[in-house]
Amino acid sequence: MTDKLFSRPEFRRRVFTGAVLFICITGLVLAAEFTCSGKVLLLGIIAALSLLAAYECARILDESRLGQALLVLSLLLPLCFVFSGAQGHFCSVSLADHPSEVLNAQSITSSVALSKNLSPSSVLGAMLAGLVLAVSALSVRSLWTMGSPDRILRGLGGSLVGVLHVGAGCAAVFAILCLSQGVVWFGYLVLVVALGDIAAYLVGSSVGGPKLLPAVSPGKTWSGAGGGLCVSVLTSLVYGILFVPQASTLGLLFLGALVAVIAQLGDLLKSTLKRSAGVKDSGAILPGHGGIYDRCDGILSASCLLLAVLVAYGGQ
Hints:
By secondary structure, this protein is mainly α. The protein has helices at residues 2-7, 9-34, 36-60, 65-90, 98-103, 120-145, 149-177, 182-207, 222-243, 249-277, 292-314, and strands at 211-213, 217-221.
């Protein structure tokens, strides 16, 4: 079964695209860690991907052109606010002190020290305002166009799920990047979720077994979920030892497990939206993977959890 998996053209496209993404993301994270311009560039790319994910989500929900525009604008407006303070925020940290601060972090508390120029609370506030704007506009549109109460509730319910999943996830990612060790934790988030997703795909395709939730995602298996969980936990431990040495081993294991579970639930949520819309992928921009939303679903979900843990343990 493994030989058949490796010989599939789709698998080869998936591997090639994944390798290119890994190289690009690694370069961006390294640039963001050591230069203020790199941080602004990383923020800009994430913002662009967030808008594209919102657009893909709107297409899955079969929104009208107006609905798609509302979902994108709900992120675009607060993103303008974030960018207005990004340069001053990211360049306020001494570049000479920053590399040693990463490698010799005293505790998780030091990773959530905030800059007074742009704080996670201001970012979350701006993104929340965008979400309220989107929800209000979609509610008015649903009441105006759908007619019957049942159609209004079904249509509005799906739209709200999509808005909250993409919007809240993007807000959490931006808030994480506003922490003093935000780039380190962003790298943690991407690596733990991505490697867990790769392991789930490989183990599930090779081992097979009982389906996880066949009505929502027929290809996902319990063996794949277990394999992804184990790899995410191991990745969390290794990454933490290398870059957050004062974090406890038990804490890293527990955090890795939580991130893995929430990321897989986010994947199932996206699969539910796609299944209800009768589509296979959110887009076709990534050969072998689908759309941006297909690749970011787990990160969007897990980012909210990670932000809550960092702020809680940082005492903020």
